């Protein structure tokens, strides 16, 4: 019979996974979910190993940033937030909310921008991109509510960084907006609208 890990051993294993995932998030710009799954494989752990929660990964990411890129990351984050603000203004009619590392403050120059749009008509945002000759790709991803949603992915130049950044527009129904604003496990909003982003940028200036 296979021996079970003790709670202390399980926590230590999760911390190890979180640390490996944090390195990938900072150095490669991976989303935390993808980073955790890759870390599991990298460490040669069984597929059913209990993964760390996002709070544990966030702590490891912030530690990684503080140790290795504290001098460059704040400027990179601001540049990405400025680009996100630009797209949020362009897409204002679709009630855009910024999420992910750019909202949370853990983004580096390799991070993508994730905007969640809350639309009355799910095809309206796509039509708007077509009307403005914006090239994009459509794929299906898992939304914050656990259901499949369309994601419109495009590339946008971030001039301060001289990088072409991925911008992903997740299309949600307007009725999902209220649930989107529920606080996370640490009592913070997991996403913010344009006004919230501007307040955040002003506070960090």
Q: Say what the CATH topology of the largest domain is.
A: Beta Polymerase, domain 2
Q: Count of helical segments?
A: 8
Overall mean pLDDT score?
92
Q: Write down the secondary-structure element order.
A: HHHHEHEHEEEHH
Strand runs, count: 5
Summarize the model shown.
The protein is α+β, with helices and mostly antiparallel strands. Helix content is 46%, strand content 19%. The chain starts with 6 loop residues before the first helix and ends with a helix.
Structure notes:
With 205 residues, the chain is of the alpha+beta class. The chain folds into 2 domains: 7-68, no CATH class; 73-204, Beta Polymerase, domain 2 (2-Layer Sandwich). 46% of the residues lie in helices and 19% in strands. The protein has helices at residues 7-28, 32-42, 54-68, 73-90, 100-104, 124-131, 177-180, 194-204; strands at 97-99, 113-119, 137-142, 148-158, 163-173. The protein has a 5-stranded mixed beta sheet. A hairpin with a 5-residue loop joins β3 and β4 (148-158). The longest helix is centred in the N-terminal third of the chain and has 22 residues, at 7-28. The chain is globular and about 55 Å long. The mean pLDDT is 92.
């Amino acid at each position: 019979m296979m021996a079970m890990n003790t709670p202390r051993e399980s926590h230590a294993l999760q911390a190890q996974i979180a640390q490996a995932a944090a390195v990938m998030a900072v150095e490669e710009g991976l989303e935390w979910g993808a980073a955790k799954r890759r870390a599991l494989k990298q460490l040669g752990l069984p597929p059913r190993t209990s993964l760390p929660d996002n709070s544990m990964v966030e702590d490891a990411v912030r530690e990684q940033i503080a140790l290795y890129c504290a001098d460059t990351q704040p400027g990179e984050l601001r540049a990405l937030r400025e680009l996100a603000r630009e797209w949020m203004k362009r897409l204002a009619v679709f009630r855009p909310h910024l999420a992910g590392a750019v909202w949370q403050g853990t983004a580096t120059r390799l991070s993508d921008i994730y905007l969640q749009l809350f639309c009355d008509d799910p095809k309206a945002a796509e039509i708007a991109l077509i009307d403005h000759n914006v090239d994009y790709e459509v794929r299906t991803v898992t939304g914050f509510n656990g259901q499949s949603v369309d994601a419109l992915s495009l590339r946008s130049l971030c001039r301060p960084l001289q990088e072409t950044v991925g911008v992903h527009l997740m299309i949600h129904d307007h009725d999902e907006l209220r649930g989107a604003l529920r606080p996370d496990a640490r009592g913070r909003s997991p996403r913010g609208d344009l006004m919230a982003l501007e307040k955040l940028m002003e506070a960090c200036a």
